[in-house]
């Protein structure tokens, strides 16, 4: 099954390019560490999922590029073409001249309706190229105007046009100390709207990835390209082909559907966080070895203690004893309660890895049995030169604090009415803001009371 | 890609404008090696086939034939514009882009605004329409003028009004040179206050400039060069005051150095819209992020570094120094100290080989020493443009919406009141058709209201921070 990616705005297009680059380089890589047959199977599944064969022989990414100004798209297209190994189809992009001015209302209420037909036309064409459509993956930031506002509008259009398809929004949360002054308004508007149209939101926070670049990857002068490459690696580690647990011999054919099924049992809870270990500079890889028990142990503690990376994990945090009603001691220790978790393992000796510790009922809320709340996917085929690689996609309280902070700052600004005239002039009124705040306070409350 | 049009009005406006076009050509020449007319060039220049003279058709792609500035030059005296047309930039301007008269405005805002405004209205509208028609997607008008005289101030603000009427969707950025206390035009306070009322109602963003600040920066650079410190030589074309390498070098005049600073301000402001980078900052984003309330649209600007030393290796300490300098009193383009006043919002546009981690490190470092308004504690807007200015490896433009503009306005008001109380020179204005006493009282009232808004914000500074309580949801 194939996934159509929609890259929205500067961030979406820059990341999208790194993702396809990473996928392509992984497919072509020789560090698979598995049998030839396995490798070919993986190769075929990945290609079908993300690329389309073209007459020229160079695979074309199954993607639609959208931006309201031309500079980023033209850069993205030429960088891809220069690689020689993959490209974007020549007619799968849409851009305008003026940009959205970091204004969500401009993206949603003006650009959206104006360009709906042209954009959905491109999406339709891309969808038709798929023998079997597995769903849509949109990449956007929520701080600006196009990715956020136009992205929210396009998501709604996707939902209307493809009511039975899965839609996963990959959303980038901006640095806390501002890239855009009105980023908190744009974020609140985006998240609340996405909550109504998409199936799930997969989140990456710039602050977190930045820390990974600084502390784990040892990069001195971190650029957005570095950040985007880490994000691309993490996404690849989730979406490259795997065998579902207990599944037959072939690679799973419905990754988005499987993901939604395992992780989003209840529509009120759609926010997914992502963790991936190990992360290290490429030149350290040949000198490092890992054991599965070690990786699993770290990953589990990262989940429980809500750690952002494999350094600085708080090992003091423990799950509450089963049977205790309010784990008051643990609330102080910031224990992260999960609704559902998905672990993905790639690499050498992956069969028979013991994941029992993730099935511990005390990690989860009471309303799902652990067998239902936890799932694992795996493949012996190593990913992106890492001999062993473990990822966790989690529907848990991971994003509760960051969400609360964003809503708090936005509310603070809203109370003083600052910048509101910029939104009202494009048709987003104070009542619309209030509706969005209400939606998100509800989400915060639901996650808090897990 | 969008286009911008520059409207330069009056003597000051045209002199600064002239420097802008010169430096813009120099910047594009340095970046555009292949001589191909690209989108970056098209933001400020048309490309025409000059074989048919000025009326040649526009060439949208391919080699550069003849570049024409997207500009309108307006002056009610002929001297300055004539000089431009005889100078090395004469081919850059289309003869149809000029509006001149002979007698000037006598340093009288009313003459500029009411008399010439009325007289030239249709002519101006027609020429604006023509320039707009040549643009694929017109995003912004830049008005350059001074406040203290008659033409720049009066006719300039008339044009501002016109722009809002005829092109309501296009942004209006105004670069205004404010008069100093020792200004030799006695009526400059009247002219400035009357102009400011127009700003409050019709401008999207105003970038105030004061000659004293420009003068001090020029002196600072001279001292640096002449002191021969550290034995290093300064790269000539890297001076923010220099026109070296441009067409006009041989005839540098006293105001040229100061005007080059303002020209560089405009180049840096538009750099991210013209050139690529990892975090673009377009003009509409500047307005969106820096104007929290419609009337508070005055932005204090600073440019760093002022020069680059000839030795090539720039350690990151120098980079950090660049950020620190942007917030210091002596780098601001008006006499103001943003560090000791209250920030409503701040934008940093970095050019050159600077990455997001450098930006973050410096914001974290400088933040504790700055005061931000309670509802915008992390109010930073940032942009990264890959192309540095000529002669530099990197540069920074800081734009601050900060209450430190208030003293400038208060002084202006005081100087106005000194004259107004005695009704000095008032008859020169009131005898003009369309001018009444109420024009003055409304203008000063508008200025007072603006000052009051800044006062109210200042009053919140340093006070206890009470966050409004959040919405409660029924569980």
TrEMBL record, chain A:
GO cellular-component term (any): cytoplasm
Location relative to the cell: Cell projection, Cilium; Cytoplasm, Cytoskeleton, Microtubule organizing center, Centrosome, Centriole; Nucleus
A GO MF term: structural constituent of cytoskeleton
Domain Tubulin/FtsZ GTPase: 47-246
Alphabetical UniProt keywords: Cell projection, Cilium biogenesis/degradation, Cytoplasm, Cytoskeleton, GTP-binding, Microtubule, Nucleotide-binding, Nucleus
Cofactor: Mg(2+)
An individual GO BP term: cell projection organization
PROSITE patterns for the chain: TUBULIN
The protein's role, per its UniProt record: Acts as a positive regulator of hedgehog signaling and regulates ciliary function.
Family classification: Belongs to the tubulin family.
Subunit description: Dimer of alpha and beta chains. A typical microtubule is a hollow water-filled tube with an outer diameter of 25 nm and an inner diameter of 15 nM. Alpha-beta heterodimers associate head-to-tail to form protofilaments running lengthwise along the microtubule wall with the beta-tubulin subunit facing the microtubule plus end conferring a structural polarity. Microtubules usually have 13 protofilaments but different protofilament numbers can be found in some organisms and specialized cells.
Name the UniProt record assigns to this protein: Tubulin delta chain
Originating organism: Cnemophilus loriae (Loria's bird-of-paradise)
UniProtKB/TrEMBL annotation, chain B:
Domain of life: Eukaryota
Cofactor(s) needed: Mg(2+)
GO cellular component, one term: centrosome
Domain Tubulin/FtsZ 2-layer sandwich, chain residue ranges per copy: 279-414
Single GO MF descriptor: GTP binding
Gene Ontology biological-process entries: microtubule-based process
Principal location: cytoplasm
Extent of the signal sequence: none
Pfam family, one: Tubulin_C
Protein localization: Cytoplasm, Cytoskeleton, Microtubule organizing center, Centrosome
UniProt-listed SUPFAM superfamilies: Tubulin C-terminal domain-like, Tubulin nucleotide-binding domain-like
Residue span, Tubulin/FtsZ GTPase domain: 55-277
Keyword annotations: Cytoplasm, Cytoskeleton, GTP-binding, Microtubule, Nucleotide-binding
Quaternary assembly: Found in a complex with TEDC1, TEDC2, TUBE1 and TUBD1.
Similarity remark: Belongs to the tubulin family.
Protein name, entry field: Tubulin epsilon chain
